[in-house]
Design goal:
The protein has 154 residues and is an alpha+beta fold. 26% of the residues lie in helices and 27% in strands. The two termini are 32 Å apart.
């Protein structure tokens, strides 16, 4: 149900940390090799004949066991300020909690000052290093698996 045209337009927006225009086949491969959460707005049509509009995305690159990279998170500008981004991050956090006993680390890159506070509050992320490079900073969160000598069965 992910909308490739909606995602392509959003990722090309210079507002995001690393704006990029991807050819459709590259975007499709990128999404199919990731764990994606789409955020949708209900159709305004009374008979629900049209598909909901995609207004956001959270994309994780992960092996579902030991690591997760939060690669893309967005809510369209016209839908921001309504709590959708916070809710989307809470959904991401639930997925990460399911991996927590073996999860070593979660990482992400964001613009300095943009959503840094939200990532800290909702996901427990912390700056990785003190200096932003080119306006971008890395953030991370250690999982329980980062200190385990031997992985325990769940």
């Amino acid at each position: 149900m992910l909308s490739l045209p909606s995602i392509a337009a959003a990722l090309a927006n210079p507002q995001w940390a690393l704006p990029k225009v991807y050819p459709p086949h590259v975007l499709e491969q990128m999404l199919s090799n990731s764990l994606c959460l789409g955020l949708y707005k209900k159709s305004a049509s009374p008979d629900f004949s049209s598909l909901p509009q995609q207004i956001g995305l959270a994309r994780l690159v992960t092996d579902h066991v030991t690591f997760a990279i939060i690669a893309d998170v967005y809510v369209l500008p016209e839908e921001q300020g309504k709590g959708f981004g916070r809710w989307l991050l809470q959904c991401v956090n639930e997925i990460l909690k399911d991996m927590d006993t073996t999860l070593r680390r979660v990482t992400l890159v964001c613009r300095e000052g943009s959503l840094e506070a939200s990532y800290e509050e909702e996901l427990g992320m912390k700056r990785w290093g003190t200096k932003a490079v080119g306006g971008l900073l890395m953030m991370h969160r250690e999982g329980q698996g980062s200190g385990l000598g031997e992985v325990q069965e769940r």
